[in-house]
Write a structure and sequence with these properties.
The protein is an alpha/beta fold and 365 residues long. The protein has one domain. It is 30% helix and 15% strand. The strands form four sheets. A six-stranded mixed β-sheet has the order 1-3-2-4-5-6, sandwiched between helices. A hairpin with a 4-residue loop joins strand 10 and strand 11. It is globular, with a radius of gyration of 23 Å. The chain starts with a helix and ends with a helix. About 2% of the residues have low confidence.
Length: 365
């Protein structure tokens, strides 16, 4: 008697199902490696031809700047903000992004500028240069090529900063602000340009390095330890409930003593925006002046604030926050998107108030 057809196909079907489950499990285990590999330009940096250099005398080399930076009026705020963008370029083709990268420009204008430069709109005039960013991939690997890409990006940033100081600053107080890759580059500006020049350092209101790993044993300038203190550094990297897996995989190299080094074994500098100080003390959610999701808003439009969204405390050098109460502050997007800074700012109102207080200290207003 022949075997029933259903039984005859059972074992091949089970075999196919088992192979499919095995394959799915393998993909899940190696998913991060597969995604990283997809972003690898696969070009040795020694033979790589970077995009054309920006000319900072042209407005096209700046994301943001005043309409007439050379003309000051009594209505202008008393300080400037030099803002360095976080990563907006994934990679896959180039180690360093061209400054006219359309996708990166869209991401900056829709999410990065309104959420991270936005808190400074009511503080001062904002200057945000375009620069040939090191790709997201360069922040996910320890390869020497990646280090060279980040060194290359710093060349643009230093040139932009020196151009700004010479042509647009006019001896005014200024804030240096950077996020993620922009924060690490700003840290080197502090070390190489600001700190060695006492007169320039005296005009620094503060440096805000958001989502930036800075070794606590080698800060480029004095950390901010109290509200209203001027000329200091506020740097932090945050993680919901202190989960370091959210932080270190996307930041395998940090600046220390003028070099890119692995963060292993280093304690990080941790400024708590709710306290206005570098401190390990806990900060309850009632101190949170206003989280904001400004993505998609027109530039300089004031977003709606949601107060008391998170508590925060520095633990082992990481700003550990509670899980935000509102669904507006949930991470989403592609694998690469989730390794960039989020398209919202949990400390928008806190940063604005903090910068205004330090500005008042330095300008006596």
């Amino acid at each position: 008697m022949s075997e029933p057809r259903s039984r005859r196909w059972r074992w091949p079907a089970l075999l196919v199902l088992g192979l499919a489950l095995l394959l799915a499990g393998g993909v899940a285990v190696f998913w991060d490696d597969l995604q990283r590999n997809a972003l690898d330009p696969k070009i040795p940096y020694q033979t790589y031809h970077p995009p054309q250099a920006p000319d900072y005398s042209l407005r096209t080399a700046w994301y943001l700047m005043p309409t007439r930076p050379d003309e000051l009026t009594r209505a202008d705020p008393p300080v400037d903000i030099f803002f360095l963008s976080p990563t907006t370029y994934d990679g896959s083709e180039l180690w360093n992004a061209p400054i006219d990268d359309r996708r990166g420009d869209k991401l900056f204008r829709q999410a990065m500028a309104p959420n991270y430069a936005g808190p400074f709109v009511r503080v001062g005039r904002i200057f945000a240069p375009r620069y040939r960013q090191a790709s997201l991939y360069s922040e996910l690997t320890l390869r020497e090529d990646a280090q060279e890409a980040r060194e290359f990006a710093y060349g643009d940033v230093e040139e932009a900063f020196r151009y700004y100081l010479e042509h647009d600053n006019q001896g005014r107080p200024f804030i240096l602000a950077g996020v993620e890759q922009g924060g690490t580059l700003a840290a080197r500006l502090l070390s190489d340009v600001v700190a060695p020049d006492p007169q320039l350092h005296a005009r620094l209101v503060a440096a805000y390095l958001q989502e930036t790993v800075i070794p606590a044993d080698a800060p480029p300038i004095e950390p901010c330890v109290r509200k209203g203190q001027a000329g200091c550094l506020a740097a932090w990297v945050s993680a919901i409930q202190g989960d370091l897996s959210q932080v270190l995989p996307a930041r395998p190299l940090v600046w220390s003593h003028g070099e890119l080094v692995a963060p292993n074994g280093h304690r990080f500098l941790c400024f708590n925006p709710l306290l206005g100080a570098t401190s390990d003390a806990p900060a309850p959610a009632r101190l949170n002046l206003g989280a904001a999701n400004a993505t998609g808003l027109e530039w300089d439009a004031r977003p709606a604030f949601l107060a008391r969204q998170v508590s925060a405390q520095c633990k082992d050098g990481v700003l550990s926050t509670s899980r935000p109460k509102s669904a507006a502050f949930r991470r989403a997007g592609t694998w690469a998107d989730r390794r960039k800074v989020p398209p919202y700012n949990l400390f928008y109102g806190d940063m604005e108030a903090d910068a205004l207080a330090r500005t008042a200290t330095l300008t006596h207003r």
